Amino acid sequence: MIDQALVAPRYLAGPGDPAWVTVPLHQASGWSHGHEPLLPRVVLSSPDQQTLLRLEPVPGDQWWRITHNGGSPATSWYASFGSRTPVELIAAVTDALTDPVRTERAMADLLLPLRRRGWQTAPDGDFRSPDGVVEGERLTLSGSASWFITAGRKEDVPVWAVRFDGRTPTRIVAAFIKALADPAPLRRTHEQTLGLSRHRLDLQWQQVPAESLASALPDRVARLAARRHSAPPPATGPAPQTRRRPR
Predict the structure, then answer these.
(1) What ranges make up the beta strands (E) of the chain?
(2) Could you tell me which of 140, 142, 138 has the C-alpha nearest to residue 174?
(3) Which of 49, 96, 179, 220 has fewest C-beta within 10 Å?
(4) Cα 148–87–84 angle (5° rounding)?
(5) From edge to edge, which strands make up the β-sheet containing 186-189?
(6) 194 within 8 A of 5, measured Cβ to Cβ
(7) What is the mean pLDDT of residues 122-127?
(8) What pLDDT score was predicted for residue 157?
(9) Which residues pair with 44 in a beta bridge?
């Protein structure tokens, strides 16, 4: 049996294991990676080579970056995440990004999941968590809305910061906000709780079998791989009909 902590609120649970994001991208979604064993960074590229995820420990800067090159400025976008952003929040973004069933349905209220959990929201898109720790700003420029979300901004150094530029697909931002609003605690090992600010956290310890802890990531990979292989094939139109001219 191994001690495991249930940490709430989830946005202060610490970064967790980066493999929760990187391994499923590679093993379940077919993203390729370069092999640079002497450099402390991970670079993964999508099968179509349009999207790049970079994890690089740069002091004072965002450690996680997702860039998408859609072929034109109007279809290209980026998102970035601070080093202490919980990997489960980043995984919500990458899971939405790799979902084979992609829908860009108009979402009338992106902040509805937050409002249902008692978060403060404003008509301009700004929001704040009930404890005041997380703040989100929606900045509109030239008809597009970018997002700047922070945890612990009032401290000397924010715990983490997340940015989505104005061309980021709605489903990507919506996936992050939904994961942010989820009240379920995050699971952390004893080592992953070291350095957390305990006065704002609710830590509940439990003992779990070592096998269940070890199987969590492989189970996640298998689930996402099954999603990919069970997706319906792209819709194709009827074959063109040719008319035979009378002789």
Answers:
(1) 2-8, 32-33, 42-45, 51-55, 64-68, 77-81, 120-121, 127-128, 134-141, 144-151, 160-164, 186-189, 202-208
(2) 138
(3) 49
(4) 60
(5) 186-189, 2-8, 202-208
(6) no
(7) 92
(8) 67
(9) 33, 53
Dist. CA 97–CA 44, nearest whole Å: 13
Taking the model in full, what pTM does it have?
0.89
Residue 149 identity (one-letter amino acid): I
CA dihedral 30, 35, 38, 43 (to 10 degrees): -40
Spatial strand order in the sheet of 144-151: 32-33, 42-45, 51-55, 64-68, 77-81, 160-164, 144-151, 134-141, 127-128, 120-121
Digit-coded pLDDT (tens) for 172-209: 999 999 999 999 999 999 999 988 877 788 999 999 99
Whether the per-residue pLDDT at 100 is higher than 90: the answer is no
Integer angstrom CA distances of residue 40 from 23, 58, 63, 147: 16, 10, 11, 28
Q: Which residue's entry shows tokens 């959990």?
A: 117
Residue 78 scores a pLDDT above 70 = yes
